[in-house]
Amino acid sequence: MSEITPFRVAVPQADLDDLAARLDRTRWPDELPGIGWDHGIPLGRVKELAERWRTAFDWRAQEARLNAFPQFTTEIDGTNIHFLHVRSPEPDALPLIITHGWPSTVADFLDVIGPLTDPRAHGGDPADAFHLVIPSLPGFTLSGPTREAGWDVHRIARAWATLMERLGYERYGAQGGDWGWPISNALGAVAPDRVVGVHFNYMGSPPGDDDDLSPDDKERLASQREYLANPAGYWQMQVTRPQTVAYGLTDSPVGQLAWIADKVTEWTDPASGIDDDRLLTTVMLYWITGTAGSSARLHRANAQRGGPPVPCPVPIGIAVFPHDLVRPVRRRLEGVYDVVHWTEFERGGHFPAVEAPELLTADVREFFRRFRGR
User: Fold this and answer.
1) Contact at 8 Å (CB) between 134 and 108?
2) 74 vs 78: CA distance, rounded Å
3) Do 319 and 200 form a contact (C-beta atoms < 8 A)?
């Protein structure tokens, strides 16, 4: 099947009523006195978020924000793919496919869609315009659960190449962070004759010689080694036991809330932050679609495949945000990739499209200027 079907988010009221009833019946855990964040997200913070979710969060307003943009679904390689497809009013706009990660959704990009597709209307140069394709990862939120194993980053990259071909785009760029890093990296390898360049806002450093590195570079590598040697608990569970995780997260909205809010809070620059309604929108999209387990399966599928990322033969650009999980070392990456653009920012974390959309927008524009008109 290659049919592309228009899509709108429309959660039945019965599902919202069920959510409210579940929140009302939450069975809260105890908590050690004065423990703070040492054992995970504090009880008081989760209660605060749950109360807002139950009494003040306006899901219909968030639904309307999503539905303000054209959305579609299509079947690729046996699975459903949901995506936003927002064409620019500028006829010579460059197509760009943007890939989110975990625990992110397409809603992360709502603040950058207008400036990227229609820079003329946002005080920018119309020559910087993009046609945007923003898919929900297979098994994530509005794409719905995957129905078979094996959906690793390389299979997703092949699906993205099929999607762009199906939309009629023969020449395009790619952008991503978190899972969007290895997926966009693999897309450049899958379709090097079509992908003009890849922009990353998150990337690890490959192995290499530590000689003549600056103190800052050594600190970055030490932080990355520590992170890889002691991966977060969520990562270990989703890599090894995604099905076990799924029961609690699919049955308990507060369980899903705490699972996501813990990581979003930890990975966000405290100076920029993510407001509670944006956080609850993310949680809501995983909750209403029941995709806690299927989204976790990507961690397992990719770990089972193993091995280093495939080389990306197209030029890349990197935006480094100071409060991200890891910060890459330029020298290391230049030994493996064709790095043509590098920006170090003074604020922002793992979710720059939400935390610092104006910085991400400007950097994406700057990187892709070199590929226009060819």
Assistant:
1) no
2) 10
3) yes
Annotate 177-235 with DSSP letters as a single string. STTHHHHHHHHHHH-TTTEEEEEES--PPPP---TT--HHHHHHHHHHHHHHHS--HHH
Q: What is the pTM of this model?
A: 0.96
Q: How much is the average pLDDT of 4-16?
A: 98
Contact 348, 323 (CB under 8 A): yes
SS3 at position 30: coil
Region of residue 34 (left: phi > 0; alpha: psi -120 to 50; beta: else): left
Neighbours of 34 (CB within 10 A): 6
Q: Strands across the sheet with 79-86, in order?
A: 4-7, 71-76, 79-86, 130-135, 94-99, 172-176, 195-200, 316-320, 339-344
Helix, strand, coil percentages (3-state) for the chain, rounded to 5, are 50, 15, 40
Average pLDDT over residues 152-161: 97
Q: In 18-109, which ranges are E strands?
A: 71-76, 79-86, 94-99
Q: Tell me the per-residue pLDDT of 45-79, one tens digit each, with 9 for 90 and over.
A: 999 999 999 999 999 999 999 999 999 999 999 99
Check residue 374 and give its pLDDT: 55
**pLDDT (0 to 100) of residue 307:** 60
> What is the Cα–Cα distance from 348 to 360, expressed in whole angstroms?
10
Q: What does the block give as tokens for 48? A: 């605060």
Q: Is 88 left (phi over 0), alpha (psi -120 to 50) or beta?
A: beta
* 225-256 confidence digits (pLDDT tens): 888 777 778 888 998 999 999 999 999 999 99
- Alpha-carbon separation of residue 264 from 23, 40, 106, 229, 310 (angstroms): 21, 12, 15, 21, 28
